[in-house]
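[step 3/7] fold_predict: job queued, chain A
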Amino acid sequence: MEHSEAVAGNLHPMLAEICQALEIPPGAIGRLRVTGRESLPSCYPVTDMAVAAIGAACLALAELLGNSGDTPAVTIDRRLSSLWFGWSIRPVDWKMQTPWDPIAGDYRAKNGWIRLHTNAPHHRSAALTVLQCDPTRDAVAAAVGGWTAEALERAVVEAKGCAAAMRSDEEWQLHPQGIAVNAEPLVATQKLQAAQQWSWRPRRDRPLAGIRVLDLTRVLAGPVGTRFLAGFGADVLRVDPPGWDEPGVIPDVTLGKRCIRLDLQEQGGRRSFERLLAEADILVHGYRAGALDGLGYDPDALQAIRPGLIDVSLNAYGHSGPWRLRRGFDSLVQMSSGIAAAGMGWKQADRPFPLPVQALDHATGYLMAAAVIRGIAARLNDGVTTRSRLSLARTAKLLIDYRSEPVIDAMPQTSDTDFRDEIEATPWGPAQRLHPPALIEAAPMHWDRPASELGSDLPRWEA
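[step 4/7] structure written:
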């Protein structure tokens, strides 16, 4: 942290574009200082995007605080921002599970490469049903070899699974879905209606204390965004259906949150959800387009239950175009959008080469957090309710647009100095967390509770 400078170089235009999308005043960038020089190795500016996304969320908070006093300065560390785009937790004398299913990954098809995402049991079942093979990597590889990548992608998706053929950037630019999502705003925000008067005001030291966030998101973008909100005092209540699990991810992303289970297809679960929603300030959800509507909770229904609700949602492939209903994850969007192909060419590799971290997830998560905070500001300042929509594929365009010189030198691995001394008592065992990647003057980022298991709390708000 010995080196500090104002936002400059490739980072400045990227941050400026994000701020414009969020309607953060251009002058806010002048209050951001960046420390450190390290970058993650990639042919894309991954660390610049990490700094820009985290920085935008922090600048949004600073602007919120500035409504009632001096606007605080923000400092972002490049190394820590990069590390928070990976894993923030370091177990002490225990090991985290791998998040990856044994047969998930990249396979060579007749005419190229395809990625199968099988971490969820029903997605695994869909892929195996299409391939008609044993659940081993060798058997899957042999079966995939009999398909063209596009035909297998289509078949797995039609079976309600998750797959993505590898496409080049040029192919994605000409693809109907690439054309559709690239025409969307980075953050699409609607001002829906006048909101009721709100007595809540931000606290200088804990800006989001008293804000209630109902979190209907899963791996990985949404949980990253709500983890950020919890780091500044929001009461985040994560809702998962019975039986859902995310092994290897939960200890990292439930920091600061309480976690409950509700079945929204069952009357008791719906009643509990609606009771919680009626007292929430924010709803963050990552259901596929139309899925929440299908449960009876379209935007009008949500506002009827909770007038003034700030609504922020995420979709994988965008909110328009032929793939808007398609299931997707960061690694699949990297394959579809040309990122994995570009990495393969850069490394002169014989297989797809992804980003060094799941940067689309993490960046989108921080942009979602920023959209929440800008929604809070809009309700306080303008008396309106907002609805914001983001997607992994549109965030991919942000990264692709700012591709410049590759970063070749590897960033050093984590060391003891990257982590806080305090021990976090998690249900899995003691752990340490990385130092926060950002500092907002007089409002330090910290979490009031350790990570928790899914379904470990009761469906209620804190008093």
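[step 5/7] annotate
The first helix runs from residue 11 to 21.
The first strand starts at residue 4 and ends at 6.
exit 0
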